[in-house]
Write a structure and sequence with these properties.
The chain is mainly alpha-helical. The chain is built from 27 helices and five strands.
Length: 545
């Protein structure tokens, strides 16, 4: 006779969410977890209700079926929950399924749920699996709290405290510490942690970390070798495929990058962002059939995804112009408008793309009307549009004879994004397409130079203690380039320096807060951003007192 083992964890205060489209299955799982002493169990029959529940309440455990009928599946729920930061680190997200096809398993596992269980299973097996994960995660509660509050430096210190205790799961604290250093772009510190881990044994996540750091510090050949080696040992490592493709692009081996992404999308076809990356690269390099297939797939799997985007439709249509499917391209744009009703930005994207398709079809009068409509829409909402759409509009203005308007938009883009090398390369490529390659190089260089000169002058004023002049200069600069990361960061810095010396001011506090929010939205947070936020927080509390 088997003696039941003593429970390792008290479940009585835990909050559970069960997601399954079959009421009987939800009821069965509810009975299982209630037998552990759980009293707070919520249920959801579809992705919409599940995400609404997650937005309202922090759950300790989420049991989610993979197949939920015609709408969002379990993979897309996890994808959106992560994207919207609805999951705490300590939350256990367990995927449950009766399916075992390769594509389904790859898709489910790629989004890294905390566990993956195949039906059928009994309550004892479920409990054992939950206990194991929850006990491991409970060690991270204080670290998680610091991360959620943006106190990353403190989170690293907490990791150090745990590592010093030498627990059985010390590798997880080392991984957390290294990734926090990466997040703050302190690459040498992160590299030291990864190398120390690898000095003891071969650990795939540490090798991935070294590869990412090599890439992000410009050592693309080294990064390429690392990611290729990881794939050689585990062909199903999808993250390594993505990073290898990025390396190959940087090494100007674009065809090889396309092949890497093609392989990855065959192994795991439901990863929408990878389909989009493949489509973008193939479209840029003129491999239009691949681009058309990738964006068509992105549209299909994006129907219930948080990454559903009008751009997938317009890029599919642009590819179709080159594959001999111009009329079908117009139908895709019609579908875009149907799938994004009452969305002015989506309609603008459709109209702008329609203009190009009609030109390719020789329907010049209709194309002129489409351009006029797009120009009117742009005037109404130009400041709200992402950089990629502004660039497309600039191209359209130049192609339609309004070179001054087009170059003005390009100049503004460069000034607002002068450190974004990827966007600057795209701008250069776009200007070359409309016969302005050399002029485009000068335009980018001149616009970029003006930003650097102005920023350096403001910093010099601050270093000389002329904070009032620095503030005036940066405030004036913000009028011209409100989205520039460096200008926003330095504006916040001089405002904080001024208030630390002369006391808080409501208008300065408000502007500094807005600037730091813009920086946070524009880039990966760095240590300097967190230090500025902490200094601003102290000033805000002092001013309120």
């Amino acid at each position: 006779m088997t003696i039941p083992r003593k429970p390792l964890l008290d479940f009585s205060g835990k909050r559970f969410l069960i997601i399954d489209d079959f009421a009987d299955m939800r009821s069965m799982l509810r009975n299982m977890v209630e037998s552990y002493g759980v009293s707070e169990v919520d249920g959801a029959g579809n992705g919409k209700d599940a995400l609404t529940a997650m937005a309202k309440k922090d759950y300790d455990v989420i049991l989610c079926d993979y197949n939920l009928g015609e709408e969002k599946d379990g993979q897309q729920i996890l994808e959106e929950a992560r994207h919207r930061n609805l999951l705490r680190y300590s939350t256990v997200f367990m995927m449950i399924t009766a399916e075992n096809t390769l594509h389904m398993v790859m898709g489910a596992v790629e989004y890294q749920p905390d566990d993956y269980m195949s039906k059928p299973f009994n309550k004892h097996v479920l409990r054992q699996r939950l206990e194991k994960i929850m006990l491991r995660k409970s060690d991270f509660e204080e670290i998680e709290r610091a991360i959620r509050q943006g106190r990353l430096i403190q989170a690293i210190q907490l990791c150090d405290g745990k590592i010093h205790e030498k627990p059985h799961n010390v590798s997880e604290f080392l991984k957390c510490k290294a990734e926090l250093y990466e997040k703050m772009e302190q690459f040498s510190e992160a590299q030291a942690v990864y190398e120390a881990v690898l000095d003891g044994r071969d650990v795939p996540w540490a090798r991935m970390g070294l590869g990412r750091i090599a890439y992000r510090t410009g050592r693309y050949e080294t990064a390429r070798e690392i990611f290729a080696d990881i794939i050689g040992q585990n062909a199903n490592n999808m993250e390594a495929h993505d990073w290898l493709a990025r390396c190959l692009v940087r090494l100007e081996e674009d065809d090889a990058a396309v092949e890497v992404l093609l392989t990855a999308t065959r192994l795991s076809p439901k990863a929408i962002q990878r389909q989009m990356a493949l489509g973008d690269l193939a479209l840029e390099k003129g491999r239009y059939e691949i681009a058309e297939r990738a964006f068509k797939k992105a549209v299909q799997i994006g129907a219930h995804s948080v990454f559903k985007s009008p751009a997938n439709y317009t890029k599919q249509a642009r590819a179709m112009v080159h594959t001999g499917s111009k009329k079908d391209a117009l139908r895709v744009l019609g579908k875009l408008r149907k799938d994004f009703p009452r969305d002015e930005q989506a309609d603008f994207q459709a109209t702008l793309c329609e203009h190009g398709v009609l030109l390719e079809m020789g329907r010049e009068e209709e194309a002129r009307k489409a351009f006029a409509r797009a120009a009117g829409q742009f005037d109404r909402m130009g400041g709200q549009l992402p950089a990629e759409l502004i660039l497309e509009m600039a191209q359209a203005f130049i192609a339609n004879g309004d070179k001054d308007k087009g170059t003005e938009l390009v100049s503004d883009l460069v000034k607002n994004h002068h450190e974004d090398e990827t966007l600057l390369e795209r701008i250069q490529h776009s200007l070359a397409q409309v016969g302005m390659e050399e002029e485009g190089k000068r335009l980018i260089s001149d616009s970029r130079g003006k930003v650097v000169k102005l920023n350096n002058q403001g910093v010099r004023y601050a270093q000389e203690g002329r904070l009032g002049e620095a503030i005036s200069l940066f405030q004036e600069a913000l009028e011209d380039m409100p989205d520039n990361k460096t200008i926003n960061s330095n504006t916040a810095m001089v405002l904080i320096m001024h208030m630390e010396q002369h006391g808080g001011r409501e208008d300065y506090l408000r502007l500094a807060r807005k600037c730091l929010e813009t920086v946070k939205a524009r880039c990966t947070p760095q240590a300097e951003l967190f230090r500025l936020q902490e200094r601003l927080s102290r000033l805000t509390k002092s001013h309120a007192a």
